[in-house]
UniProtKB/TrEMBL annotation, chain A:
Keywords, in A-Z order: Cell membrane, Membrane, Transmembrane, Transmembrane helix
Name of the protein: Ribose transport system permease protein
Organism listed in the record: Phyllobacterium trifolii
Domain of life: Bacteria
Subcellular location: Cell membrane
Statement: the UniProt record of this protein carries the keyword Endoplasmic reticulum: no
Pfam families to which the protein is assigned, alphabetical: BPD_transp_2
Automatic annotation (TrEMBL), chain B:
Membrane-spanning parts: 20-39, 51-70, 77-98, 104-125, 137-156, 176-197, 228-248, 308-324
Cellular component terms (Gene Ontology): plasma membrane
Primary localization: membrane
Pfam family, one: BPD_transp_2
Protein name (Swiss-Prot/TrEMBL): Ribose transport system permease protein
Native source organism of the sequence: Phyllobacterium trifolii
Keyword line: Cell membrane, Membrane, Transmembrane, Transmembrane helix
Topology of this chain in the membrane: Multi-pass membrane protein
InterPro entries the record matches: ABC_transp_permease
């Protein structure tokens, strides 16, 4: 009884433990690792991925997938940059609105036309990318520096980067939704067994609709931060973001089959993958080894490999315990 | 005509969706060709045919492996990265960067075999993760999607490799009886795969696994072994496609070879009528799907529509094709 329990605990908190170990390692080994500058720049940069991964986490919890988030973020950044001369809030709203539009189409394709999420969002990935390129005329679009739009991505609030505040708020809201609202419980129910959920009278389609809409909106928000942080809307950015987000969600222990998932562990997954990059940069700075940027994706891939193999082993052993709950 | 036969005819009225699901891709392709004959200037030339065929070749070769993988109910996201690995490895071997080989023919042969073989081994690795650890295909192949391109970049240090080796570039630029070699290669692979899927026990086992994996296992099919082979084939196809791409370009850039190929291949498979949930697959359909997507893009470009708009149209076609197929099945 205690052994399976221990294993399932390790399964759910393994990612947090790994994150703590990595941070401890960095703190012990590098002088400025826990310095203010490093922490804020890591958070500022990874907040975009955190937002995209949050939406992905919700979609995956329903048993779906959203491949369009990367291009949606690119589209959001272009639209936000185009609208930024009108004011910071209008730029923000336009970017998020563009993301919501993509999310809306995804939601209609999946819930009304019953097209498999993988295909529907793959198509929207192409469509959003094409729209972004058309709007931007195949080049990056400079944002307006007079309207204060850039402060969304570049300024601090209470000594902490604004993008990080946005991401933290989004995760708090996400956590509350999953744990304390009926819609949130419905998300997990749909992923666990959609037919049963329907028979119990839960609005399965409405839940899925909302999830894709939210994923699109969050991707659009990530795009706004992208444009504001780097001063330009970038139609070709965001390539591969969807897969990075999936990797973060998986590392966080959310099952791709749906029904199981944790918002907090997803955040830990994002930070883990992000800080891995950071540690590698510090290691290069030490001069002991010199790994080119190309090694980073190899190491990330290996890391993902270790995590998924561990998860497969844990879940096959702990499956009895999981079923008992 | 007997009564029962007549009754059957009456009870099964003509269903447009079913008809479209079966022949839609073919009809779309025929309509596109007719449209181009009418409106696109210089369409009916050998050059147009050549351009379209050579461009579609690599997608079709990769999509053959992808069709088999999808037929088992899986997916392979790593094909683009495997193309990059094979494309990075081959020039290193025939340019003698690893071991100097004096004989050009020998060097080229070694380069091709090793590059494709390594891609196949990585495919086998994908299959191993999926069969041994029961990791979901999308996650298992995500590992090499991320790491694979990195491996190719590390191998070449991110540098562009340029070369002029006619013996090697024959597979991308040469001609057999006036037909581009890669087209011949593509046709051979399509025929072999279609025959295997329809006429061999192994092919039927692939379909059985995709239809109902548990039932397939209980009926004595070695599910793990079939999966290992299928992902290996997908890796080999990606390896071959990688060689063709760098042969055409006379250069290999690990950052670009095969970029986004997984999506093109999946789109071709979906438009061609293979069920993405597995259990029903058609290689010829995949060929037609890839050609339809290619021809749509060509038609739009030839008539002055920008490439970005072509992406949006491509998205619409994928959705429409999959939707029609679903309606056909439901009826």
């Amino acid at each position: 009884m205690t052994r399976p329990r221990l294993i399932s605990l390790l399964g759910s908190y393994g990612v947090v433990l790994a994150l703590l170990l990595l941070v401890l390692f960095g703190w012990a080994r590098y002088d400025y690792f826990l310095g203010f500058f490093n922490i804020t720049s890591v958070l500022r940069y990874n907040s975009m991925f955190a937002l995209v991964a949050l939406g992905m986490c919700f979609v995956i919890m329903t048993g779906g997938i959203d491949l369009s988030v990367g291009s949606t973020a690119a589209l959001g950044s272009v639209v936000a940059a185009l609208a930024s001369p009108q004011g910071a809030w209008i730029g923000l709203g336009a970017g998020v609105g563009a993301g919501l539009c993509v999310g809306l189409i995804n939601a209609i394709l999946v819930t009304r036309l019953k097209i498999m999420p993988f295909v529907a969002t793959l198509a929207m990935m192409l469509a959003a990318s094409g729209t972004a390129l058309l709007l931007a005329d195949n080049q990056s679009v400079s944002v307006s520096y007079e309207s204060g739009f850039t402060s969304i991505g570049q300024d601090n609030f209470l000594g902490f980067p604004i993008p990080a505040w946005i991401a933290i708020m989004a995760y708090v809201v996400g956590w509350i939704v999953v744990n304390f609202t009926s819609t949130g419980r419905g998300v997990l129910a749909v992923g666990g067994n959609e037919d049963a959920t329907r028979l119990m009278g839960l609005p399965a389609d409405r839940i899925k609709f909302l999830v894709y809409l939210a994923s699109g909106g969050l991707a659009g928000l990530a795009g706004v931060i992208l444009a504001s942080q780097f001063g330009a809307g970038q139609p070709i950015e965001g390539v591969g973001w969807e897969l990075f987000a999936i990797a973060a969600v998986v590392v966080g222990g959310t099952l791709l089959t749906g029904g199981v998932g944790s918002v907090g562990a997803t955040l830990a997954g994002v930070l883990l993958l992000g800080i891995l990059f950071n540690v590698l940069n510090f290691e290069n700075g030490k001069g002991w080894i010199s790994l080119s940027a190309y090694w980073q994706s190899v190491i990330r891939g290996l890391f993902l490999l270790v995590v998924v193999i561990l998860q497969a082993k844990l879940s096959s052993r702990g499956s009895v315990a999981v079923r008992d709950y | 005509m007997t009564d029962t036969a007549r009754q059957q005819l009456i009870s099964r009225p003509f269903d447009p969706f079913d008809f479209m699901a079966r022949y839609g891709t073919l009809i779309a392709l025929a309509l596109l060709i007719l449209f181009n004959f009418a409106f696109t200037r210089n369409f009916a030339t050998m050059q147009t045919l050549n351009v379209n065929l050579t461009q579609v070749c690599t997608i079709v070769i990769v999509a053959i492996g992808m069709t088999l993988v999808i037929a088992t109910g899986g997916i392979d996201l790593s094909v683009g990265s495997l193309m990059a690995i094979s494309g990075a490895l081959a020039p290193m071997i025939f340019l003698g960067k690893i071991v100097p080989i004096d004989n050009v023919a020998l060097a080229v042969a070694a380069a091709m075999i090793i590059a494709v073989g390594v891609a196949g081994l990585f495919g086998l690795f994908n299959g191993w993760l999926i069969a041994r650890f029961r990791i979901q295909p999308i996650v298992a192949t995500l590992v090499l999607f991320i790491a694979g391109r990195g491996i190719a970049q590390v191998l070449t240090n991110g540098n562009l490799q340029t070369f002029r080796v006619p013996q090697f570039q024959w597979i991308g630029l040469g001609r057999l009886f006036g037909i581009p070699v890669q087209v011949v290669l593509m046709v051979l692979l399509v025929i072999a795969a279609a025959w295997m899927l329809k006429r061999t026990v192994f092919g039927r086992q692939i379909i059985a696994i995709g239809g109902n994996e548990r039932a397939a296992e209980l009926s004595g099919i070695a599910v793990s072994r079939v999966k290992l082979v299928v992902y290996t084939i997908s890796g080999l196809c990606a390896g071959i496609a990688g060689l063709v791409v760098i042969a055409i370009n006379s250069s290999s850039d690990a950052n670009l070879v095969g970029m986004g190929m997984e999506l093109d291949a999946i789109a071709a498979v979906a438009v061609g009528g293979t069920l993405l949930s597995g259990g029903k697959a058609t290689i010829i359909g995949t060929l037609l799907g890839a050609m339809t997507i290619q021809l749509v893009r060509y038609t739009l470009l030839a008539n002055g529509v920008p490439d970005a708009a072509a992406l949006v149209v491509k998205a619409g076609i994928i959705v429409l094709a999959v939707w029609i197929q679903q309606q056909g099945r439901r009826a």
